[in-house]
Amino acid sequence: MKLYTGKVWDIDLADPAAERWTDFAIQNGDAIQALLSDVEAEIEETLAPTLPRLLLAAVRTLASGGGRLLRQVVDMFGEDYPQELACIARHADVPVGKLMLGNLIYDFTSLAETYGCGCSSLSFEVDKSPVLVRNMDWVVPRSTGRHTRIFRFHRGRQAYTSVGVAGMVGVISAMGDSWAVTVNQAPVIDKPRSLFDSVFDWAKAPQLLFKWPVLQRVRAVCDLLPKSYNSLVLGLRSYETIVPFFAHVVGTHAHEHTVVTHVGDADAIRTRRNGLVQTNHYVHKKYAAYNPDKAEGWVTYPRYDALKAVLRNSLTDERKDSIAQRPVTALQLLADATDEDTMQQMVLWPSRQQMVVKTRNNG
Questions:
Q1: Angstrom distance (rounded) from CA 49 to CA 257
Q2: DSSP string covering 83-143
């Protein structure tokens, strides 16, 4: 993996949603087109065999550039991101339905219970301030690493930085002045027959008004530009989402470590004074029944154990001194949770406003 040395793209939240991605889309049109082609191919190869029939039909409709009805349902609720997607689609010369599919891939794979992407995160303290390191193992498609982009979202002087992918408007990893957050996929708890079944089940429609795609909802919280770690944690707990997720959050002061476990319409939090580990299974006992069987060989369990051992045994004073001098060395702590599926690695250190990102040039 190589250090990311590309441009940090400026996204002004004060601009109209229908215009704020114009420059980025014009200059990154080829990357967006290539990534979406890879998404479409990956769906047919990997997801189609496991997707429920109606959900697969919805996915294929979006992939073909259609999905007007679904887009109208999304537009009804007045969020910025449909307008942002329309802006990107127009200037990158891609069908807006296909772009929407790329932005909903987290939610579609969760609804289909198609797991296997082993994201891992570890937080600890150096000089009494939290550091968050993370692997983003997302191989739908495998060109995710190659198409990594970093964005600076701002409104006036307030800003946060997001590590994303070309064409993706949501947030999966970000750092503000007083916090950092990374999102890991969580096992699904409610098992709807399909996304369309949920949307058009009128008994559920009132509940769905407040349930949104995970990465777009995390972005909505970050766009509020929270002034503190506690404000960010509260925001992440306040929104309902279509599918579950884990959000690993750190602040700038000692002992500010939290994992928000959000299961769509309820949440739980874990805190530890000196650091936390999160992979892709529920640690809370009340949700443990929804975890995949350990006998299935899912990588989340050995990676969790390996990073817990790091937290207990590897953070010597010498190691912390090394990280303080060269933050990139913190990525060595992720060695036992890293493989060919790791598309992004990063160090987020909000108290020092330091971000280090590595990517894998696949695809």
A1: 39
A2: HHHHHHHHHHT--HHHHHHHHTHHHHHHHTT------EEEEEEETTEEEEEEEE---SSTT
Instruction: Give the pair of three-digit tokens for residue 243.
Output: 């599918």
Quote the CA–CA distance of 254 and 45 in Å, as a whole number: 46
Single-letter residue type at 96:
V
Q: Which residues pair with 276 in a beta bridge?
A: 123
Distance, in Å, from the CA atom of 352 to the CA atom of 75, rounded to the nearest integer, reads 39
Half-sphere exposure of 118 (CA within 13 A, CB side): 18
The answer to whether 134 and 120 are in contact (CB under 8 A) is yes
- Calculate the dihedral angle through the C-alpha atoms of 355, 333, 135, 131, rounding to the nearest 10 degrees: -40
Check whether 79 has a pLDDT greater than 90. Answer: no
Q: What is the mean pLDDT of the chain?
A: 87
Query: Could you tell me the CA-to-CA distances from 335 to 119, 310, 330, 352 in Å, in that order?
Result: 13, 10, 10, 24
Average pLDDT over residues 35-50: 80
On the question of pLDDT at 363 being above 70, the answer is no
**What is the model's pLDDT at position 117?**
62
Residue type, position 291, single letter: N
Say whether the peptide bond before residue 141 is cis (omega within 30 degrees of 0): yes
CA 49 to chain centre: 24
Q: What is the C-alpha separation between 349 and 163, in angstroms, rounded?
A: 14
Does the predicted TM-score (pTM) go above 0.85?
Answer: yes
Do residues 113 and 119 make contact, with C-beta atoms less than 8 angstroms apart? no
- Token pair belonging to 154: 């701002």
Residue from 292, 304, 272 nearest 186 by CA? 292
Residue with tokens 């010369």: 93
Pairing of strands 173-175, 180-185: antiparallel
Please report how many Cα atoms fall inside a 13 Å half-sphere around the Cα of residue 265, on the Cβ side: 9
Q: Give the mean pLDDT of 257-276.
A: 91
Average pLDDT over residues 205-222: 74
- Six token digits for residue 116: 């296997």
